[in-house]
Design brief:
Largest sheet of chain A: none
Largest interface: A-B, 37 and 37 residues
CATH architecture of chain A: Orthogonal Bundle
Shape of chain A: elongated
CATH topology of chain A: Tetracycline Repressor, domain 2
Structural class of chain A: mainly alpha
Helix content of chain A: over 70%
Oligomer: homodimer
DNA sequence: GTCTATACACAGATAGAC
DNA sequence: GTCTATCTGTGTATAGAC
């Protein structure tokens, strides 16, 4: 599966994500009409990503956000109780998207090697499709309150476990070499993260997401696969 | 070489770094006595790292810094012209340390495989020894003005080239497999970065820097080494 | 639902005494 | 060299008109 196929198969678009955010946080919003709320949330999210990509969430002022969205300060506060809550809302939604997608892809395949490939691909392709979310989730995690940061850590360990479980399973079947699978899972996660943390580099070097994924898979398989005698 | 050996062999300590910072920025400081300046710079740097690790540079107020160092606001401004300049000073010094060390280790070995190992090890060990510097340099890069950010990018590409040059050289000698060495260099850098970006994870999992380095090397060599026929 | 106007806290930075 | 006191801009957030 390449990126184009993934993109076509993956239903959700920006508007759908905004709708999910609305449904999950409806009780804290003064806006009641779904259509209005979703349209404006979409604008707000896009603006947040655009502003914070360059200077970070802390440095983004509510006036910046007002200017970029074309909405007034008063209007913005009808969509979330405060700046800190806005951060949590985005982080929560980001985590939900990743967990939901990876769990789904992990269930789709049976053979450990195919499963490993599917999960690695899905993670990187998803991070390409929702790059701003991934970048934001990583870079702004430390601005969360302890509870939020704990959720980030738990998520990191959850996705790591998906990978190490596959590796264990494959070792039991004689497909993968015995190794410290926890550590290998960490390395895989590091490679995945590279894609959305340093996008400027790959854009400049004209490396596509498909090339990147293939290289990651080659490296991982070169290390993990049991040698045929 | 393991981490302990690296640490013993690597001369510079925190005080020496503070001295380098003093010498490099002397003309912008109102403090003239080296001994006073170095001692206080050491305090200031430690305080910056401690505060920003949790909430970032933008969110650190000068009053936070004053409290943590035990120095007054007025005194702090005798050591640097402004908050933004303080950021540049730290970033510049961080880059200098990395470049200086890596170039040195790359020159030390002759055989491509040994050189590759030496450079990868040196980078990870250095990031362990000066973890706050590395973490800070990465996380706060986007708060720099364009010129500073360009320097960061140039540095990233410089260290990448050190690696890809070694891989090219090794391929010419038949030691490494033909591959997209640029991309492999990127992967290696991603693995190195993982160590200082997610230290909390490795502390929790009781993984030492030596274990980590060995795993990275095993993975890289498994992928790069030409297969013996 | 969205606007303008404004409250009030806190930021970075400096002046001038010691 | 270091301190305290203070200036001035900007931050988040809200009240109340439309």
């Amino acid at each position: 599966m390449n990126y184009d196929a993934f993109k076509k198969g993956y239903g959700a678009r920006h508007k759908d994500i905004a709708r999910q955010v609305f449904l999950a946080n409806q009780e804290n919003m003064r806006i009641k009409k779904e259509k209005t709320a979703v349209a404006n949330l979409e604008k707000i999210l896009a603006a947040v990503f655009s502003i914070t990509y360059k200077k970070g969430f802390q440095a983004m002022s509510m006036r910046d956000l007002s200017l970029k969205t074309g909405m007034s300060l008063g209007a913005l506060y009808a969509y979330f109780p405060g700046k800190e809550e806005l951060l949590s809302i985005i982080q929560d939604q980001g985590r939900y998207m990743v967990k939901d997608t990876l769990d789904r892809f992990a269930r789709q395949e049976d053979h450990p090697l195919e499963k490993l490939r599917a999960v690695i691909r899905a993670h990187i392709f998803l991070s390409e499709l929702f790059r701003p979310w991934f970048y934001f989730t990583f870079m702004e995690a430390r601005n969360l309150k302890p509870a939020g940061f704990d959720a980030v850590k738990a998520m990191e360990e959850h996705t790591q476990k998906i990978l190490s479980d596959i590796l264990e399973e494959g070792e039991a079947e004689g497909i993968f070499r015995p190794e410290n699978h926890e550590l290998t899972a960490c390395m895989i996660k590091a490679l995945q993260q590279e894609w959305y943390l340093k996008r400027w580099k790959y854009t400049r070097q004209k490396i596509t997401v498909d090339m990147f994924v293939d290289h990651v898979l080659a490296m991982v398989e070169g290390f993990c696969l049991a040698v045929k005698e």
